[in-house]
Write a structure and sequence with these properties.
It comes from Rotaria magnacalcarata. There is one protein chain. The chain is mostly helical and 215 residues long. The model has no long low-confidence stretch (mean pLDDT 93).
């Protein structure tokens, strides 16, 4: 819930202050702090603040790391995801595909690559390019199902994305199946008022109501 986000922010901001005093301004650890704070703001729905911190992180990583470093990809993916959430789909794709151009060509964490695939898929879904969206969604889904435990929160997010995809293409039976999986995993990990679980439930209920009409 938002109490947890506030605690996380407090922790990361204290850590950032220590690092800002102890480290030179382009040290990669500072970029990590900015990225962590950006992620919290993104999860809180404060996208402008999230973008500001991700851009600070990116600015440091561009100076401190080689062009094809996996962390450069992660920052590009984070920036792209926030642009997607803000409705800037073309801009989002630019950053996300830059991230993938690194992740698909160097050895990196496959789960980070899966996150980028899912973000690209979501972006294409929002742009109503459903064929391309499904290609990327399925790549992300395969990696996460292979690498994550059955009830991992990232799997809930993946199933929720798949549910939204199939809802968009009016395949309500598949949408309901994935929506139910998202809710079941979300209930294992999140409190009942957590914004992610609330969203999973809303999507699942929409799928159920459509399914009743069409089946």
């Amino acid at each position: 819930d938002f109490g947890d986000f506030s605690k996380a922010l407090e922790y990361y901001e204290k850590s950032l202050k220590i690092r800002e005093l102890a480290l030179p301004p382009t040290h990669p650890d500072l970029a990590s702090s900015y990225s962590c704070i950006g992620l919290v703001y993104r999860n809180m729905g404060e996208y402008s603040k999230a973008l500001s911190y991700f851009e600070k992180s990116n600015s440091i990583r561009e100076k401190a790391l080689p062009e094809k470093h996996p962390n450069r990809a992660v920052t590009n993916s984070d920036i792209g995801d926030v642009h997607r959430l803000m409705g800037n789909y073309e801009k989002a794709l630019g950053f996300l595909l830059t991230a993938l151009s690194i992740q698909e060509n160097v050895e990196c964490n496959p789960l980070e690559c899966a996150t980028t695939y899912m973000n690209v898929g979501e972006t294409y879904r929002e742009m109503k390019d459903y064929t391309t969206a499904l290609t990327y969604d399925q790549k992300g889904l395969i990696i996460r199902e292979e690498k994550l435990p059955k009830y991992h929160p990232d799997l809930a997010a993946t199933y929720h994305s798949m549910s939204k995809f199939y809802f968009s293409t009016q395949e309500y039976s598949m949408a309901t199946k994935y929506g139910q999986q998202a809710v079941e995993i979300g209930q294992q990990n999140l409190c009942s008022t957590h914004p992610h679980l609330v969203e999973y439930r809303e999507t699942f209920e929409k799928c159920l109501s459509k399914r009743k009409i069409f089946y």
